[in-house]
Amino acid sequence: MSVKLLGERIKRKEDPRLIQGRGHYVDDLPLCNMLYLAFVRSPHAHAQIKSIQLEEARKMPGVGAIYTGKDLDGRLGLIPCAAGIEGLKIPDHPCLALGRVRYVGEPVAVVVANNRYQAADAAAKVEVDYNALPAVVDMDRAVAPSSPLVHESLGDNMAFVAKLEGGDWKAVEADASVKVLKQRLVNQRLAPLSMETRGVVASYSPGEDTLTVWSSTQIPHLLKTQLAVMTGTDEARVRVIAPEVGGAFGSKLNVYAEEGVACFVSRQFGQPVKWIESRRENLMATIHGRDQIDDLEIYYRPDGKVVGLKCRILADLGAYHQLLTPAIPTLTALMILGSYNIPAVFVETKGLFTNKMATDAYRGAGRPEATYIIERVMDLVALELKLDPVEIRLKNFPPPGKDIVLATGVSYDTDNYQKTLKKVLTLSSYKKLRREQARLRKKGKYLGIGLSTYVEICAMGPSSRMPAGGWESGTVRVEPTGKVTVLSGTSPHGQGEETSFAQIVAEELGVPYDDVTVYHGDTNQVPMGIGTFGSRTTAVGGTAIYLATQRIKRKMARLAAHKLGVKPGEMVFRDGKVEREDGSKSMKFAEVVGEAYFAKQLPSGVEPGLVENFVFEPPNYTYPFGAHVAVVEVDGETGEVSLRNYYAVDDCGRILNPMLVDGQIHGGLAQGIGQALWEEHVYDENGQLLTGTLMDCAVPKAHQLCWFETANTETRTPVNPLGVKGVGEAGTIGSTPAIVNAVIDALQPFGARHLDMPLKPEKVWRILKQGPAQAA
Amino acid sequence: MIPEPFEYHAPHSLAEATRLASELGEQAKLLAGGHSLLPMMKLRLAAPRHVIDLGHLQELRYIREAEEKIEIGALATHFQIESSALLNEKCPLLADTAREIGDPQVRNRGTLGGSLAHADPAGDWPAAMLALDAELQAVSAQGERWIAARDFFVGLMSTALAPGEILATIRVPTLPARSGDAYFKFRHPASGFAVVGAAVRVKLSEAGHIEQVAIGVTGVGAKAYRAADVERELVGKSPTARRLVEAAAHAADGVEPNADLFASAEYRHHLAAVYVRQALERALEKARA
Amino acid sequence: MNIRVRINGAAREDEVEPRLLLVHYLRDVAGLTGTHIGCETSICGACTVLMNGEAVKSCTLLAVQADGAEITTIEGLTAEDGRLHPLQQGFWEEHGLQCGFCTPGMILAAHQLLSRNPRPSRSEIRRALEGNLCRCTGYQHIVKAIEWAAEKMGGSTS
Ligand SMILES: Cc1cc2nc3c(=O)[nH]c(=O)nc-3n(C[C@H](O)[C@H](O)[C@H](O)COP(=O)(O)OP(=O)(O)OC[C@H]3O[C@@H](n4cnc5c(N)ncnc54)[C@H](O)[C@@H]3O)c2cc1C
Ligand code: FES
Ligand code: FES
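^ Those are the sequences you sent over. The predicted structure of the assembly is below.
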């Protein structure tokens, strides 16, 4: 392998089309005879639908049909939920509301028209008569017996209660030195907000009886199965294509009402149908993330050792379950101990129905909440004991390199938390920062230094523990010309795996990088796979491709060895040749390919052709970890927080392309920082969305962020042969607590202990206003 | 995303525009840069039957000096103002305010006249207009009249312009000697609009006392206003640091501050005091230079 | 209404409804889908194109307002012979994009920046991107991409 590709900074294969505006996102697809959909949505958080008047709307130009929930009832299946939790209540979730609406933005009717302008005009003429009902908005109140109910038939607003208990609580109780600290943390609701909203084109061809669906999705294969079931179409006749997808962050890891409706309408008309979500719809009716209240009891010893953690989680699930809604907060419970060896744990998670859009996977999905909890816990205890945040972390880390099983039952694969922490302290000149902070404080300037040392759970995952299987497929096909086609069951949408997968295959086969082309996202072209989420694409999907490549190599080695009269085991792949290590016997790569296809002299038992598939089942998750340091400045007059520096050291296992890793980290940081400082998706007490447009809903902008200094440690995981762990969510997970810890740190002269996110200037100002803390 | 249908008119002269405006009356909306009107139409918060596009009125795009005054055509864009050498020299407050508006694309299209006519409570221009005692010329089929900035902003998104009137010219005095000005703005993290904006023009006497001071504040109340109480505390006085703080504390006196998800009334009140003081400090610094 | 425009150097004449947004005109009528739509409140900048050399948000213009104008979209930046514009190249070299949805708007906003300020500082670059949102990259590589282009262009934007 003379050309080294793995580990190198290789430019992306995806980019030439994207930088020239020549990629095709869903809305870019032109099809003849396209019909357009516009949805009529509920303006109420909770209401009974008394009547729907369609006469005026039907008279509008270009209108083909209008459907309401009643028209679809029994003709289009319900929206699926795949979460498996004991005792989980799953309310019916029709694609168009039936009788009741339960959140602002719930689709009530759909207009089919000849173009988007006509569809919008007609939708505006649909009149729905509602009888407004009291809305369930606040979680504390939702559990009260007097609360109105989101789903009366379910008896209460509790979708599930799950408990996780582990470790030795008796020992904690017996230890007289143990103190308890209580704290409530609110992890606010967020909008995932990919820059491309959702969109779908469904095209049913009556002649061929096939349904082709282009959707802006992370899971084309799973979507195919679900749409087949929902629409009653033979699955073999459904094809789903994820074209260029303009970001997702978990929000497109789902099966949505509009996808079902588009398929239904296309089948009715025998014509292609397009729906493109507006940003307002996106903020109302695409899943939201986070939204937990976490009530903590922290048990710690005077030396800083945390010996037990109890957490009662209230998770706001929204009105209905989307694909994984209830599963998300259970990941919080699983990862709540972070990178610390805390011997006793108790987590009770209550999933609650409210009159809001469903929450579901948003970048990190349950783990940012866990990391936020445990990283705040560390700082709270440090504050109580006047310990440096570094010290408390070192005190609670497990010893490096030992396999440990935590009280939660989770066993991490590889760890060396001390190493990343040490590295980030050096990178940030931590000690110097502390000195600077002390100097500035004397001048009335408030610098804050925040730490977070996280561990996350990635490469989702072993099928035994995943709702719909956690394996992934990879296919490598060497074409007769010697060019290589790679097919992946994953569905990347910005992460860059067309590049990294090609790096793997080209390096393994010793062929030029440019000769390898990666395809994904088309269910008719690619064998069944699972999709892109949970930082799994490279670790699981890449491994499948790596292993399929090994199969190709074995076959080609056999063919070459047969021809050259040597042993297959002697063959190496390099520089476009298959040859002996010493080069004494050699064949061109293309010649070996020719052997496979012309099939004149195949060794016995070898099939012609050169295509291999591998389905990789990961034996475990992977557990990337890292340490981040945030430096912020707080304006002493206004409370405004500005970012000054950010240092991130992440260990995502083996790095295939450092440029891509940096990109993933940067993007994650921006989102995590966004949660800490600006972002919140807010409903008022009546369940009206207050952050319904980008005028109110803050997304980090370029000038609000600072330069990110990143570095890595590279501890390979034994879970897959590539040693890759996954990096898609690390930045988001690590950064939120680092920022909050930094702001609280800056506010030490004012005696601050905790503030809930986002740390808007006013909240900080209210602390400043109280004046300097009395010396305790 | 999609506006309701309307009839489109594109007059090529101010006279033609005023005629159309008076004919069509309240059924028509004037379109300047469109960066307030079109977003509202796309959200269907506005649905005029007629749109009169002022975009072709080259005659309203100028920025010129006229006897100690500056005259700006209503259709001058924020970018034109920000990049005008004349304004940067003779009335820097305008260029500085323009720079704080929205983003480069918005500034390329949005106009001074459109902003003033729209009178967004979080818009930047009203503060500067008040601080400069601008005069605004309204032209209609019936004739023209000049309106003082103080009388122009009537209430929440409402102005003294009568139906059929077009804002044509904005006139402001150039910066006198021993004077300085400044615009300080606290931006909303999402929209970029002013949570609070304070525009100041101050003139010092030979002795270094405040001879004149004018302070326009936007973002705080339903409409922009002059911080008269602050001005009163300062005129004729020497601008000590302490006096500035004390005077600026009155920046929102008598105003009912807005409250929203981002900032409560109390916080806006506080920000007004901080930003007025900071703008005063900067303006004074420039006046002394 | 009848409008005449030059898009990426090619003249067109079309009959359009007055309410047709410029971005829909470019995408649905002219078939240039490189210009994207990310919001309806003129915030995201995904729809940014150059109109008579100035960066504008094409979702906040009526097609009729572009009558007589010269429009450049992302498709028009690549030279006839296929050579990439330094900004396109810079975004490629420096990994200035992930999903690519914001990219055309980013590139055109950057184009204007460099035409007005050929050697911007990092903070000037960030300020100039105030009207463009990216949810994927955290912007750092975008800033580097623009620096790359500024360097290569050595002060000219043609
Ligand atoms: C993303 C974004 C961010 C923004 N940020 C800011 C900001 O930070 N600060 C700020 O101040 N503004 C901001 N704006 C608003 C921007 O400055 C607008 O351009 C401005 O408010 C309106 O000017 P316009 O020329 O676009 O007016 P238009 O939208 O064309 O018109 C606005 C209103 O004024 C009327 N009108 C227009 N011209 C005249 C005239 N000559 N005579 C009489 N009536 C007239 C119209 O009929 C309409 O009712 C922002 C806008 C956007 C889209
Ligand atoms: S589409 Fe968002 S600004 Fe134009
Ligand atoms: S690259 Fe995806 S939004 Fe910018």
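Residues 249 and 273 of chain B are 5 Å apart (CA to CA). DSSP finds twelve helices and 14 strands in chain B.

Shout if you want it in another format.
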